[in-house]
Structures are given as structure tokens and as C-alpha cells.
Amino acid sequence: MIRKSNLYQGKAPEPNHEIFSTLYENTAVRIESIRSSLKTPGEWYDQKENEWVLLCEGEARLEMDGEIFTMERGDHLLIPKHTPHRVLSTAENTYWIGVFSS
User: Fold this and answer.
1) How far apart are CA 67 and CA 84, in angstroms?
2) What does 65-102 look like in DSSP terms, one character per residue?
3) Where are the domains of the chain?
4) Residue 1 and residue 41: Cα distance in Å, rounded?
5) Predicted pLDDT at 88
6) 83-to-3, 40, 45, 79, 88 alpha-carbon distances in Å
7) What secondary structure letter does DSSP report for 45?
8) What is the reported pLDDT for 10?
9) Which of 8, 51, 59, 92 is 20 to 30 A distant from 14 in Cα terms?
10) pLDDT in tens, 45-99
11) Among 58, 60, 20, which Cα is nearest to 39's?
């Protein structure tokens, strides 16, 4: 079935929360929409998959491998599997696309 949806529509996250929505998934890849509104650092992730993220709207600061990455609209980044990382903060209503693969 073909369905159309809009990344920018939907419920905004509450302060200091994120909303994860799976847009597409099969045995090889998962694509997620991530909506963030973080003023304090989020949890640490150590994922068993590679994650490529694209910041579609807003701004964010991530910590990975002892380095801080400041991201703006259009920036993208590959996070190799088993690389501990976390989001330090985002602008209100920040929108991401995450693509996960093994």
C-alpha cells in the first residue's frame, strides 16, 4: 500500500523528550523520524547498528568519541555501530531522519 505522510506534522515532543517514529523498515534497514526538544543531555546510546542521521530542521549538539558536534539544518553524520553517543541539547522542535543498518 502506498501512503503519503509529512515529517513536519504530528505531535511535538514535550520539553526534554524525543519522539521516535519508524517510517520504513525491512530486514536490512530502518528509517526513523526523530523529533527532539532537549535542554539537558539525553541518554547514552551504544547501538548494534550503524546510524546515519540528517538534521532536517533545528539545531543540535551531540557528544561522541569525546568530541562535541554542533549540527545545523542540512548537516548529516554517520555514527558507526557500538560508538557511544548522546544528544546534549536541541532547539525546540528539532527534526531528524535516522537511517539504521548493519
Assistant:
1) 11
2) TTEEEEEETT-EEEE-TT--EEEEEE-TTEEEEEEEE-
3) 21-58
4) 39
5) 96
6) 34, 21, 8, 7, 16
7) B
8) 82
9) 51
10) 999 999 999 999 999 999 999 999 999 999 999 999 999 999 999 999 899 999 9
11) 60
